[in-house]
């Protein structure tokens, strides 16, 4: 009979690092107990790795009357442990040492005060521990068993034909240690009390129970300390164990895998599908509405037309524009600023649509992720909810809407308008001179004509009509330009709003998703 040994291609150090990393990223996301347990396993592994690896600590554990103390004496070659019949007698674990040199720090770490040296070289490096009864009526006995079962290198469960099916040992110890098949051995003791056929039935039934516990391949060794049957085979297995000197690392690998399984279970299991990158087009649209982007875009168009008329309108009437407020100035958006705008607050409907869009992005990002990590991802979407309104307003205030620079052709049209206005004044002045000369009955000046119309009248009327026509044409061009300016400003505003969505909603979600994928990767490494 050979002890199980399944070596992983992942080193113990890498497993422990992965377990520690998984516990760190799971902090605050899952229940505290599995995180603390994982960290305790990492700490315990570090402590055990620093102690003697030339010694193997093997614990004999069992129920009252299972005969483990008798088996301990047989293996130690003398009456080392006191044997009881009807009640537990071992109150504190005691150890038998083969080649005890260098084992002191390990025994101190195990907190085993009672130590017996065995003068034999056949099991060199073995530290055999006789534990209290796990079903003792004394709480301190059960706590001692729990403590040592969690730290020894190899577990030998000693059972008897009467109590091997006791639910206490299966539910309290064997089932939780399903990952520890490589460091577990089951001894069916006291087989001298049964006929051979009954022994085979007991072993078959025990194997079935162990399979239900997740320990399908654990060796089962029938033993009798009275007849000596199976004792030598047990010694051979222990010899193989201490010769290999790998039980301590196998135990730590099993502890690491078990702690990783515990983390994964507390995390709701592994993801059902690949994580989704949330599509935030709808979020951008809702945030843009809440930030007043449509209002700003309309104001940009109106402001462009306002400036165009003020710059290219007919000089006779353009001064009236001074009495009409600049739409962007009213909103404090005439130029990029780090301050606040005068935009009205989002309405209840806009706020509700924004909140719904944020929730929808969180739900989409958490799709396929088990709880409680899904809840963490959903929470991350609203992590900066209280900052959204202010950030959106500042994004609008800091947007370069392109209103500072005015087209060069505006200057040319403006010069043309003033030229036409000057022509109108020249025609008007000429006519006034002719009127004064006629009124004073002075000799009239020569007045050329354009056809039958005098040039002064032609200049006056022609300049006025041309000025109005140019003004009307520029209004049409300004309307076309305002639409183009509005589209450009809308792109700038929506890009800035999208940046806010990325920074305050999408990035926290992606960080949480990255944290979860890191957890899954590390937990899988530790559990493999």
UniProtKB/TrEMBL annotation:
One of its GO terms (cellular component) is cytosol. The keyword rRNA processing does not apply. One of its GO terms (biological process) is ribosomal small subunit assembly. It comes from the Bacteria. The chain crosses the membrane at residues 415-440, 460-481. InterPro entries: GTP-bd (IPR006073), GTPase_Era-like (IPR005662), P-loop_NTPase (IPR027417). The keyword Acyltransferase does not apply. Keywords: Membrane, Transmembrane, Transmembrane helix. PANTHER family: GTPASE ERA, GTPASE ERA, MITOCHONDRIAL. This is ABC transporter. It comes from Herbidospora solisilvae.
């Amino acid at each position: 009979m050979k002890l199980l040994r399944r070596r992983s291609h992942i080193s113990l150090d890498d497993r422990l690092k992965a377990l520690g990393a998984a516990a760190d990223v799971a902090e605050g996301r899952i229940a505290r107990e599995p995180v603390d347990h994982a960290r305790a396993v990492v700490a315990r592994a570090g402590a055990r790795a620093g102690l003697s690896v030339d010694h193997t600590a093997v614990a004999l554990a069992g129920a009252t009357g299972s005969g483990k103390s008798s088996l301990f004496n047989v293996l130690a070659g003398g009456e080392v442990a006191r044997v009881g019949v009807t009640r537990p007698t071992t109150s504190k674990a005691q150890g038998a040492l083969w080649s005890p040199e260098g084992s002191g720090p390990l025994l101190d770490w195990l907190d085993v005060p009672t130590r017996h040296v065995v003068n034999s070289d056949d099991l060199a490096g073995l530290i055999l521990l006789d534990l209290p009864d796990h079903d003792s009526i004394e709480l301190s006995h059960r706590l001692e068993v729990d403590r040592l079962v969690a730290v020894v290198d190899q577990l030998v469960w000693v059972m008897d034909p009467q109590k091997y099916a006791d639910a206490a040992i299966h539910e309290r110890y064997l089932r939780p240690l399903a990952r520890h098949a490589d460091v577990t051995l089951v001894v069916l003791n006291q087989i001298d009390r049964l006929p051979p056929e009954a022994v085979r039935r007991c072993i078959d039934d025990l194997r079935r129970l162990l399979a239900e516990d997740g320990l399908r391949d654990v060796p089962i060794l029938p033993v009798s300390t009275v007849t000596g049957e199976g004792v030598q085979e047990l010694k051979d297995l222990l010899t193989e164990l201490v010769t290999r000197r790998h039980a301590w690392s196998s135990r730590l690998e099993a502890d690491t895998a078990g702690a990783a399984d515990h983390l994964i279970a507390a995390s709701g299991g592994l993801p059902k599908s690949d994580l989704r990158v949330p599509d935030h087009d709808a979020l951008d649209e809702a945030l843009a509405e809440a930030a007043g982007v449509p209002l700003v875009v309309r104001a940009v168009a109106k402001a462009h037309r306002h400036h165009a008329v003020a710059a290219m309108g007919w000089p006779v009437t353009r001064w009236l524009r001074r009495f009409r407020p600049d739409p962007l100035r009213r909103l404090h958006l005439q130029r990029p600023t780090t301050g606040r705008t005068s935009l009205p607050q989002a309405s209840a409907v806009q706020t509700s649509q924004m909140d719904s869009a944020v929730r929808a992005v969180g739900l989409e990002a958490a799709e396929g992720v088990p709880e409680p990590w899904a809840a963490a991802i959903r929470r991350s979407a609203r992590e900066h909810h209280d900052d959204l309104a202010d950030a959106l307003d500042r994004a609008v205030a800091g947007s370069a809407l392109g209103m500072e620079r005015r087209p060069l052709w505006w200057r040319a049209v403006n010069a043309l308008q003033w030229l036409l206005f000057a022509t109108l004044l020249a025609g008007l002045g000429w006519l006034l001179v002719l009127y004064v000369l006629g009124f004073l009955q002075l000799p009239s000046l020569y007045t050329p004509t354009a056809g039958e119309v005098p040039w002064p009248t032609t200049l006056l009327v022609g300049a006025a009509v041309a000025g109005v026509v140019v003004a009307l044409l520029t209004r049409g061009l300004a309307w076309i330009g305002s639409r183009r300016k509005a589209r450009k400003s809308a792109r700038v505003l929506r890009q800035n709003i999208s940046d806010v969505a990325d920074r305050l909603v999408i990035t926290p979600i992606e960080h949480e998703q990255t944290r979860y994928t890191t957890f899954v990767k590390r937990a899988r490494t530790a559990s493999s």
